[in-house]
Design goal:
R3HC1/R3HCL; about 180 residues; R3H domain and coiled-coil containing 1 like; 5 helices; elongated
Length: about 180
């Protein structure tokens, strides 16, 4: 039971935070966090991905991808910071570009939210038609018109690619583990 002899005291506690005038601080993305990503902005709302890819067509072979932020903002993901810096130095008539560190709050938020998708664009690995040819020939039950020397050359090329891939993986692991590279 509550004691009834307490005086009717009202106490108003002041808030420590001003919720009415709260401002969200700008997302701080340093140039070193996503140096291979730029913001593409101020282009017509009618632009589609193909239009932006056409603007940056000279970078597609080196590795370039588009991630949309909104109707007039997109992120350009390059294969390396050097390529992104090169793109920042070029002038485009239909779009404006700037580094991600100077981008809008929405673009920075998108970059932060999708950081794993913004890894540098990689070139497609070297491929061979040997497996496809072998599958088609065996499914149709016909003989291959490829000569023995051509098959051997293709097999040698595949073995070299496997060895190169294994060596690159070993070098990556050595760097990660801090092993001496000069001993290789």
């Amino acid at each position: 039971m509550l004691s009834g002899n307490m005086k009717n005291r009202e106490s108003i506690q002041e808030s420590r935070f001003d919720y009415y005038n709260h401002e969200v601080s700008d997302i701080d993305l340093s140039d070193c966090e996503f140096p291979h990503v730029i913001e593409i902005y101020d282009f017509p709302r009618e632009f589609r991905t193909e239009d932006l890819l056409r603007v940056f067509c000279s970078y597609q072979k080196k590795g370039f991808d588009i991630k949309w932020v909104d109707d007039t903002h997109a992120l350009g993901v390059f294969s390396s910071p050097i390529t992104a810096r090169d793109a920042l130095g070029s002038k485009h008539t239909m779009v404006k570009i700037r580094p991600l560190s100077q981008a809008t709050r929405a673009a920075k938020a998108k970059a932060r939210a999708y950081s794993e998708l913004l890894q540098p664009a990689k070139e497609r690995p070297e491929t061979s038609a040997a497996l496809a040819r072998r599958l088609v020939i065996s499914a149709l039950g016909v003989r291959s018109k490829q000569s023995k020397t051509e098959r051997e050359a293709e097999l040698k090329k595949l073995q070299e690619a496997r060895e190169r891939k294994r060596l690159e993986a070993k070098q990556r692991e050595d760097v990660w583990e801090g092993r001496d590279q000069s001993a290789v």
